[in-house]
Amino acid sequence: MKRSILLLLCTTLSLFSIPAFAEKAAAPANAPYLRPVGNAIDMDKFKAKLAKIIPGRVPSSIKPTPLPGLYEVSYGVRIFYVSEDADYLLDGELLDLQSHTNLTQDAQARTRKAIMDKVPVDSMISFPAKGKRKHIITVFTDIDCPYCRKLHNEMDQYNDLGIEVRYMLFPRAGVGSPSFKTAVSTWCAKDNRTALTKAKNGEKIESLECKNPVADQYKVGQEIGVNGTPAIVLESGEIVPGYRPAKDIAAMLDQLASMKAEAKQAGR
């Protein structure tokens, strides 16, 4: 049984999957991870226990949660909740029922944003908004992906709606694949926007090689939990998987911007 749990944890981490919303049963009142914390935990001992639970991986962060005795342990965007004695581990989402906030998704978004903020904009293939820019989205795309092509066919709509689209190349077949080589040729083209559009339309483009960020962008995609294309990353670090019509994305972004402005005005 212990071997099965370790295998499950390691497999989950390797996939960097984002857990789906799951209903959780209420914990008994005397559960050890609910007991009040009198003193700070011994972090060295805590980490040593974690190393036995999830061998070969080092947490990117360990933070206390609002729930006494429960700690948020992050491995990139993959988050677990561990009791202060490291004897109990929860794999799921933590919800704040008072504020109606998904604390897990918020933490993942912050981590994702921090990673994305380090990526140079000039390493992306960008399609700027027409007129005043209202929003920016970063799209992980695979040239051979049908729904990526569908999204790209609406590029004029995105740009007309004030949305700048920044592409990061994510050949799903992996580094060294034919799709990867096409992505490199696209990025290396003198006019890479035109080359990308031609490639997405199924047109043959010139095979080129140069110093390029494609492998790095593929790695970033894996690091933030991209497991399919297109994957739309918002400025907040939230991720929208799959194709969405341009008008729907624009409406969602406008709504999020409005909510943010209201929260700022209310001092939240």
Describe this structure in words.
The protein is an alpha+beta fold and about 270 residues long. It is built from 9 helices and 11 strands. A hairpin with a 5-residue loop joins β3 and β4 (about 90). The chain is globular and about 60 Å long. The N and C termini lie far apart (about 45 Å). The model is unreliable at about 1-40 (pLDDT under 50).
Question: How is this fold's topology laid out?
Answer:
Blueprint: H1 2-15, H2 43-53, E1 61-64, E2 70-75, E3 78-83, E4 89-90, E5 95-96, E6 101-102, H3 103-116, E7 125-127, E8 135-141, H4 146-152, H5 155-160, E9 163-169, H6 178-188, H7 192-200, H8 214-223, E10 231-234, E11 239-241, H9 246-265
Parallel strand pairs: 8-9
Antiparallel strand pairs: 1-2, 2-3, 3-4, 5-6, 7-9, 8-10, 10-11
Helix pairs in contact: 6-7
Give a summary of the structure in a few sentences.
With about 270 residues, this protein is α+β, with helices and mostly antiparallel strands.
How many distinct beta strands?
11
Number of helices: 9
Structural Rg: 21 Å
What is the succession of H and E elements?
HHEEEEEEHEEHHEHHHEEH
Biggest sheet architecture = 5 strands, mixed
